Amino acid sequence: MSTQQQPAAQTDQRIRALGFGLGLRPAHYAEFLSAAQDVDWLEIISENYMVQGGKPLAMLDAIRRDYPLVMHGVSMSIGSVEPLNRQYLDDLKALAGRIEPAWISDHLCWTGAHGVNLHDLYPLPYTEEAVRHVVTRIRQVQDILERRLVIENVSSYLSYADSSMSEWAFLTAIADEADCHLLLDVNNIYVSSVNHGFDPMHFINGVPAHRVQQIHLAGHSNVDGFIIDTHDAAIIDPVFDLYAAAWRRFGPVSSMIERDDNIPPLEDLLMELAHVRGLAAACASKPSEGWPEAAPCPT
């Protein structure tokens, strides 16, 4: 059965929360293989394992015996006007068949033009036309993968003159019409709110809670007056505060830390993840009363 043909009663069901996780990186393979770590689940970068054999897949096969996995892609280019890459999607589906991830995610963006991958995540104009275009492509991907796609909000450093709605309204329209789920990147919300001058709580309160399948946390860099989503530093307090507010609104959602550069020892990331767990526990005892009353929980 294709995703968009499912009975209405199934439309808004999220997969159960996995707990608190980390992005799996080669620097930490040995530690995950040698001893149990205080991590509930792991997220992989899909493209790193869409290969035929070799060490990455061997490591992944071993590690997945002990940890639930989620696949996170960076090259689907769901917002592009170029045809979907069917070979890419077939390889993605094959990897999913091999490792049985809880879900598959990618970014609400375009990543290149004229067949060239520019290896960046470019934002879309927030228009009705773009909604219709992306919804059609997500439905096609979901039919190929035979599962719901989880789409992530990206950080942005420019805006389009013809945008006619907010980013959160754009994201909501796509998720509802395509019947997909959302990966809410709290750091990206913070980065974009500073770069574009909006209140990040409007974003948190503007997306449908029943669509939020996962939350990302990460660090960023300040570069010449802009905040850049670099994933190369520790998470800062304002992002933790925003996460706490998100937890109070959405309830238990699978949450994880991304680190892609200046990767620290696993012990340091586990300490940061313990702080995330503590925030969630504190917020669980103080449910949100909604906007504007919702505020960051005390640490």
TrEMBL record:
Xref: InterPro entries: MbnB/TglH/ChrH, Xyl_isomerase-like_sf
Pfam families recorded: MbnB_TglH_ChrH
Family: Belongs to the UPF0276 family.
NCBIfam families linked: PRK05409.1 (NF003818)
Name this polypeptide is given: UPF0276 protein CEW87_16100
Species of provenance: Parazoarcus communis
Higher taxonomy: Bacteria, Pseudomonadati, Pseudomonadota, Betaproteobacteria, Rhodocyclales
